[in-house]
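Revision sheet: structure tokens.
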Amino acid sequence: MPPEVDFAATRLGRLGHGTRFAPHRHRQGQLLYPSAGVLATTTELGTWVAPADRLTWTPPGFAHSHRAYGETEIRVLKVPRELCGSLPTQPTVFTVTPLVREALIVLTADRSFRPGARDRLLLVVLDELTENPEQLVYLPEPRDDRLRAATAILHADPASTATLAELGRAVGASERTLSRQFHAELGMSFHQWRTLLRVQHALVHLLDGHPVTGTAVLCGWSNPTSFIEAFTAIVGQTPGRYQSDLRRAAPWSRATFVAGFRHQLSG
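Predicted:
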């Protein structure tokens, strides 16, 4: 069983590109806010990706791992178990409203609070998230062996143009069978799943500085317009705007990286 990790209510740190945290659990709920970079959270159910200025929620006791893409500035906020009931029971990525962003800055700052003030501010964040739409940058993973084999081919090459029939022949299943399994097991069509996979990879390519047109090609879109439409529908902003926001993002961390942050987070 993954180790159970607990730590102080707030942490602030900078993670290098490719930093990984082994599977672990937390006694409390956890909100992670990458103000720069991209943070991926993976469980046996799939992968949630939080681009900069999104918020990742992990409930208490839920085994998960993380990977940072790019130089990732991250703020971490612990949520007591008794306050987690209003939030989802599985990892989730939320949009971040201006109110939540400012509250997170205060809650993760090195400062003192008057009695009860910090708890009241945390409740404001939780109330705002409860009313906030969840982000759809979540890629579910199958359990069926043949479906896993088919999705593994696309994981290895997201730009692959293989049809569902071609994937079926490669893994020993009919197109109809795979189509039915996508809907029954993953709750979406083959096209929807592959689009999510490609958008997750596009987030990383844009972070690496690839232009929008080049990213579209790298991720398998036949033209930039189709890519822009798919990316905007899932992420909530155009790839150009997203990349522009990345460039403007100002580092929040003015202090030295918190000693022991990686050890305490990864267990």
